[in-house]
Amino acid sequence: MDPRVSWIQPEQLGPATELWMTFWKTLQTYKRVSDSVNYKPTPYSHSMPAHQLDFIPLSGDTDRTSGPPCLKESSPPRGGKKRRENPASTYDINYSREIINRGGMPWKNNIYPNGVVGLHMEICEFYEYMKPTDAEQWMRENVIKQVEQLIRDEWSHARVDVFGSFKTGLYLPTSDIDLVVFGEWPDLPLWRLRRLLIEKGIAEESSVKVLDRAAVPIVKLRHAETDVKVDISFNMEAGVRSVVLIKSYISEYPALPKLVFVLKQFLLQRDLNEVWTGGISSYSLILLCVSFLQLHPRNEGRKVNPNLGVLLIEFFELYGRQFNFMNIGIRVKNGGSYIKKEEVRKQMENGSTPSILCIEDPLTPGNDLGKGSYGALQVKQAFEYAYRVLNNAVLSSNYPKDCLHSTLSRILKVTDQVIEYRQEIRKSWTRPPKRNTAGSPSSLSSGPISGSDGAEASMESSSIDSEEANVRSKEVSTTSDKREHHGLKRNTEKTKTVKKCSEASSSSDPEKRDVRKPRKPVKRDAKRNKEVFVTRNVS
Q1: Which residues contact 437 (CB under 8 A, 6 or more apart)?
Q2: 3-class secondary structure, 292
Q3: pLDDT for 451-481, tens place per residue?
Q4: Are 57 and 122 part of one and the same domain?
Q5: Domain ends where: 422, 449, 466?
Q6: DSSP-derived secondary structure letter, 70
Q7: Which of 102, 243, 438, 515 has its CA 20 to 30 A from that of 353?
Q8: At a CB cut-off of 8 Å and minimum separation 6, what does 371 contact?
Q9: Cα 171–174–178 angle (5° rounding)?
Q10: 519: Cβ–Cβ under 8 A, 6 or more apart, which residues?
Q11: CA–CA gap between residue 424 and residue 450 (Å, rounded)
Q12: What is the pTM for the complete model shown?
């Protein structure tokens, strides 16, 4: 495989590898020089520099201030544009080792055992590290509110919904947000929305792209404050309905989320995760996993705690070596099955033909989800590479136990740029604590609270709340005691007043003193009264 995509493994490091990489880098430099020499300027292009090198510079002492731009010191490193567009990209990792100075394994906290058991443990820890944090969720919610408010201010009748990985919770730290706008327009306002996003400062002009000729016209942008990518489409109900379908698959197959996280990172760092660049979408990747789990011979997908290491290797083996992409399509509805592409062709409209990666849309009959993935064979090649690497690592008895690397890190890396990006989010986007008291200062404040300041503020607010609660409880208890005291005092005064009135009335009218004098209650024995009554009746 291309060494710019594949990685040199730990046991392959040595003099032979260094010599081969030197030869390969020299060959790439020669190709760039030959392209510059054979370059023919056109009226619409810039002219070449006057002075050009006629040799291949092999030493580092060569003066690179002149010559073709590709050999100058000021020129960006190879793969720089890819890394700017995709911070998680490991493009040309063997040539540019500076992108993983931190080791590329932030999830690794233990020394794992050999074999599939250690790979299973590592996948679980990778999932726990990469799954969304509360700060990342809060940041993306704020981005959605800003874009939604802009759309509602311009088109009051419009409705904005969220779908995709953010809605299902299967998004990576650098994943985009998928929004859909519902409304009625004579023509889709793609370019008008682009102008509004730039005028309001939500996105920079260079980061907003309008794909008006795509199968699904969308507006792509990068949020200026948070650097989060957002895709906005119009009147696409299938995206909203797909969220319900994916959530049902997640509840049915417990292993699905962890497998999806590993596979999404695997494709993301190789720039194979975008349809418009030839890769496969997240929705297609999830359906590939669902089909794999549906038709698994041991029915491992429905188990609560299956061995994820075995499942991952089997997934790479199926779609990297065994699956017949030329003649077979994938169907996930009605329990899942494999179908011939001739049957799919009969359901498609306008005489279209199934693509290489043919995935039947479970929500829209006749729609091939893989029709835009023109680089499906490259995805297949990457899956085959991952199978060979993991299979050799799991079965090899010579794997170094004290090695700083791990089995999963042979195919996955997390770049330094992603690690620093997540740390910055954790500091700047702490969700403010919820207050039950209406009108409190924290409930009225808007905007994120930094990490340390937010923790101190929450501690101070909690201490203030506890003191206020103690003071209020004391006030309530004091008030109740006073009420009881006043109540007893009023009852005593009332009793004294009644006694005085009765004495005064008895002294003024002696004849009625026996009548008005209250009679004392006498306790009677019910059994005795009954006996007396019976005796009297008998007599």
Answers
A1: 443
A2: helix
A3: 334 434 444 444 444 444 454 444 444 444 5
A4: no
A5: 422
A6: G
A7: 243
A8: 215, 352, 354, 355
A9: 55
A10: none
A11: 10
A12: 0.70
